[in-house]
Write a structure and sequence with these properties.
0% strand, homodimer, mainly alpha
């Protein structure tokens, strides 16, 4: 059993990781920031379960910044005409490149963020991309029975959920209502809009969370 | 105005291109093979419209094999547990790597095929990936008004449509009925299954084609 003294002890402490964390904390509401940090913590649990080691098998700094920034396209001040995953990927690459991240590593972050809602595809891209999606899925409750009880309690004490699944879905739909080009047919944002607009007026994503171990 | 003597004069003539064409012609029914070749021809039209030149701006051989093999995951003999785009991407990379394609170029083909149903994402990957999707979209009628009349006539004379949009949708849904893991929620295959199962029992993809310049 792994017990956290503080969730902060688990986070990478490079300058880029710290700057990213401060930036995202300043841009995102707590429900979104907490979801992003939890997704990273759960991604590292998923990595260990697959016997993957940081530095050896995957780049922990890339995994961290990918998870931290995966929903930055939903943060208040950001506007764009692309689906939020792609606008967010662009925001992340701009932020990270300005702080020295090289193009090859930046492209992995781009893919991790742009593909985090693409089932069956993210899983087949570089490990940091696959683990980002795995961590996010765990935070929505998919496979959450694999998470140790004490860890789960500690993580949610430090980073409360704050009705994340509903509010995140609201944010995606709100963007699409203001700008339909952000929710094209056959995309996850487009589907969330459709699901909310038709009976039973709740998305499969929210149902997954509501019926899962953590709730919304 | 560009008139084709034969559509074959327009296709790349490298050994790999010829082998790919022969392989796909042997694997796919004519409705699917013709769609794949038309997608390549329309992709090159899209490239020219964007003032992109083969060899200079994009790799024409990669674009050709990507378009030719983009639906190979729907061909009769192929079975897999992933969505057809990803199973197809794997089949293509296996085929092409065995014939000497290096890993970096093979990964571009993988992305072109795996992402061809991902709106707003394929457009932001390497040019061969974006052009593959653009060519396919043109063959479904999206933006088809930009295609020259004489060219359109010649292409469809050489490569008739054979009710492609309906039969391609049928093939995706048939796979999913046999194996639901091939059509996860929030994926294009999953959406096509849902659309056919609910009123008005026709997919947006087929409606796009039916109402477009070419019909199904």
């Amino acid at each position: 059993v792994v017990l956290l003294m503080s969730f902060e002890d688990w986070l990478p402490d490079s300058g880029l990781a710290r700057e990213t964390r401060e930036y995202v904390a300043g841009q995102e509401e707590p429900f979104l920031f907490n979801h992003s940090v939890r997704s990273y913590l759960f991604a590292t649990v998923s990595a260990r379960a697959r016997q993957l080691a940081p530095a050896v098998d995957y780049d922990d700094e890339l995994l961290f910044v990918s998870c931290l920034m995966h929903d930055i396209g939903l943060a208040g001040g950001h506007r764009g005409n692309q689906r939020f995953e792609v606008d967010g990927a662009d925001i992340a690459v701009e932020f990270l490149s300005a702080r020295g991240l090289d193009a090859d590593r930046a492209d992995i972050v781009w893919q991790a963020i742009a593909l985090h809602t693409s089932p069956g595809i993210a899983e087949r891209r570089p490990l940091e991309v696959a683990l980002t999606r795995a961590g996010i899925a765990l935070d929505f409750g998919a496979g959450a029975e694999t998470i140790d009880d004490a860890l789960a309690t500690e993580v949610h004490r430090a980073l409360p959920r704050l009705d994340m699944a509903r509010r995140l879905t609201d944010a995606i739909i709100c963007q699409a209502q203001n700008n339909p080009t952000k929710a094209p047919p056959y995309s996850t944002p487009g589907e969330l809009v459709r699901e909310r607009s038709q009976p039973p007026h709740i998305t499969r994503l929210e149902q997954l969370a509501n019926h899962g171990r953590w709730g919304s």
